[in-house]
Design a protein that fits this description.
Shape: elongated
Distance between the termini: 37 Å
Strand order of the largest sheet: 8-7-9-6-10
Helix content: 25-40%
Number of strands: 10
Largest sheet: 5 strands, mixed
Radius of gyration: 19 Å
Structural class: alpha/beta
Order of helices and strands: HHHEEEHEHEHEEHEHEHEHH
Number of helices: 11
Amino acid sequence: MPPRLPRRLLAALPLLAAAPALTTALTTAPALAAPDGSLRRVREAGVLRLGVQVEGTAAASRAADGSLRGYLPQLGSRIAAGLGVRPDFVPVPRGDMLGLLLQGAFDLGLGGAIASTHVALTALLTTPVMQFQLVVLTHRNLVIRGMSELLGRPVGVVEGRSFAAALREAGLEPRRIVTHANWEGAAGALLRREEDALIVPAYHVPEIQRVAPEATARFTLGDFWHCGVVRFGEHDLLRAIDVLLYLLRHEGELPGLHRAFFDRELRAGRTL
């Protein structure tokens, strides 16, 4: 069953149906900026291609029948419905979100791009769609109480260029960063004591502790945000998506969805 749209979101559909009117009314550039055709392209195709990392977490996972479930597929379906098109989800390997976006593999990337200077120099960012904390895990026999104690220690992270950039912007420069292709590999390395600490988004922690009960959360590196990403030059599509996200937030549906999957609020503002 398609997601039910809030009343004000339904009222906005006529606005979204007309790309030139949307561009003129909502642009933050000069009022006479010409439409770039990106929103029209999506609406004429009748489909919004959505890049999503599927990692078996609350953000996105596969059901037994192969269908996608989780916060990002639910959000992507709502955005597509608001544009009057159907969603088409494109699974994205970890670390490939920006590269595949630039190659034209999908129209909108959801997740897999932490808001950072690196990402902002590569693609256009939507307003934040997902808020989380980066959590420092250690083996239960090793107590580390703060970032200063990480310096000089080998630290494991999960692969992703925007993730690495976010860590640098948070001030973390340990002696040696070991990159793992997925959270399962990172958990195994921590169990084998190959690294002293592991830094992962909070939504990975339950899965890691399920397979590695010795992994103990010590502290967090603050709040970070995932933003949707679109290609440079596709301002029409970006503005339409941001209007929809505003309406979903204003009606309470976006905060409610975020709370249901992550048990925490999606607040305004950012630390990066």
